[in-house]
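Subject: for your reference before the review

Hello V.,

The reviewers asked for a structural picture of the protein, and I figured it would be easier to keep everything in one thread rather than splitting it across files. Below is the amino acid sequence we used in the manuscript, unchanged from the supplementary table.
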Amino acid sequence: MICRVCDSTNLVPAIDLGLQPWCNNFLKKEEVGHEPFYPLRVVYCHECGTTQLDYTVKKEVMFGDHTYLSGVTKSLGEHFRQIAVEVDDRFFKETPGKSVLDIGSNDGTQLKHFQQLGYEVLGVESSKTTAKIAQEAGVPTRQAFFNLETARSLGKKFHAINAAGVFFHLEELHSVTDGIRESLREDGVFVVQFLYMKRIVDNLAFDQIYHEHLLYYNLRPLERLLERHGLAMFDAYLAPIHGGSMIAFVTHKARGLAPSARLQELQAAEDREGSNRYETYLKFAERIKEFKVQNLAYLQAAKAAGKRVWGFGAPVKGNTMLNYFGVGPELIECLVERNELRRGLYAPGSHIPIMIEQELTELPAIYYVLAWNFKKEILQRNQALIDQGIEFFFPVNPPEA
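And here is what came back from the structure prediction:
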């Protein structure tokens, strides 16, 4: 294997989460037990410091059609609204004919907020179901994988390009980055929103490692990638969404924009704390093993005490955790979900059935919260259940969630 960012062959194993199913492959009843498993291993590049998976599940398998909808969660919708307002206020408030391209636009939630600000919008979304949902909601969407060829077929350059939770998914990383450069106006801004690996390590949020996430960026490795394609980061900050996501602002390198003070401080913190050092990831791997022991002990103790445990949420990342723990319906009876697309399905690997939250007729003693990244929203929405004595247990519990 060569490094996905810099083409080096100096890659070494860092984290091994075993054989796992593709975590968004929620199963119909007749599919249970027939799902394929793949290696889920993180390797480290000694040349550029990028952590990445060493095995690729083909993009057509993972992103051709899936059940994830960004519009289901109120917190995420509000985050997307704030991003649209910020981009407009900072860069394009008075710009006539302003336009935005969203890569991996899902159900159009982000673009709706740009529409409200007067932008001409276009989404590129690979999943058939979600692209159709966006189109039916009045968000112009091209159902395709974004890459250089797709970019050229659009025949247009955009003031803003957004990639939220998608830039670390990319099998065609260099073609996509070239496509972004070609689609970005000379005075344009590319906004890349990504899970921040430094924060994943800090939070022990190893469940954010799964097959869709091919790359795990800190700022330094991401800079290497952008530089290779004639792009440069000029600002970034940490947002609370998903337990700590980086919002980075990028433009053409030729513009020569100086890096902001807060970007420089974030970079300095990575250097100070050894965030891009191999030893940091080896320690992380050991902490993950301890985490497994502790959580299995908690679940087994609950069962021994006769307490029923249900999973709260059926996020794709939850499947990394359940499968690494080796947990099934014997410890967690069901997963409670709001997303209607997951009705009647089973979690891959663990085979835990999914129930729709609005249709519950009974309740557990403990909710084991897999959708921990929306902690604040979940606690607010379920205060009445907490008052009844139902425990909400957060296995991953970052301060930002």
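For the response letter, the relevant points are probably these. The first strand starts at residue 11 and ends at 21. The chain has a mean pLDDT of 94.

Happy to draft the paragraph if you're swamped.

O.
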